[in-house]
Amino acid sequence: MKPISLTNTEQKDSDKQLQAQLIEQGQLPEHIAIIMDGNGRWAKSRGNLRSFGHKAGVDSVRDITEACAQMGVKYLTLYAFSTENWRRPKMEVNALTRLLASSLRKEADNLNENDIRLETIGQIDRFPDKCQRELKEVIELTQDNSRLNLCLALSYSGRWDIKEAVKRLARRVKSGEIDPEDINDEMISCHLSTADIPDPDLIIRTSGEYRLSNFLLWQLAYSELYITETYWPDFRRKELYKAIHSFQERERRFGKLSKDEQKKQAKLHVQELTT
Ligand code: IPE
Ligand code: IPE
Ligand code: MG
Question: Which CATH architecture best describes the domain 27-273?
Fold first, then answer.
């Protein structure tokens, strides 16, 4: 199989080894979601304009996407622009939308050649026409790819997503198609913008902020959280490996008892029955 390369650099043997170790460990997250934060502070700490940080952030996106594709992570969802980010100064918003359009243009073939499928969630129609056109083109170009699903959250917010799902469900109730009593978790999940994507296993936030900032509010119910002080432009694959390693060390209980505790309780139960 052709090696994956988005960064145009040959993968080092030491990196291959690190990835192989993580894969061997088992419990690789199927879906990683990332709140890519800290571009502005990264730039300011270097005496640069905030837009410089956003540009540097694109290099991190490329590196993290490449590493996920190489390791066999199936879904990568990146929070690139929130509904609330429209409230930033016009100059910054313009710089961000221009950067989005130019990055899409530059990366389109590369994503396609590496069997990566691009999707988006959010209010895409709020973006300038040029951005919308570029997005549409890359989405169409990569629609049959299957190695990695790269989902960009653009003009996205969790509350917007839930609100839209509620509206869709309400319409179906109104038309008599569904009984309100039949509405369950799966049905709600199916009406969200992420209907085709499993819930994230791991959610990473960079830049040391301890909040979700209106990201996938419904979908993150049982995701493992990983927060790092590292600013997004400095978040490269080694940092990703740390996050995955931390995920692999955890026990996901989903409200149940831990495996050890379950065994202990089962033993006690048998003892009770036999004495
Ligand atoms: C994240 O970096 C990128 C976007 C929200 C678009 P920020 O721009 O929020 O950077 P900080 O948090 O101000 O450092
Ligand atoms: C969250 O970052 C949104 C994205 C990373 C796209 P923000 O920088 O907008 O979040 P707050 O305002 O600090 O909560
Ligand atoms: Mg921020």
Answer: 3-Layer(aba) Sandwich (3.40)
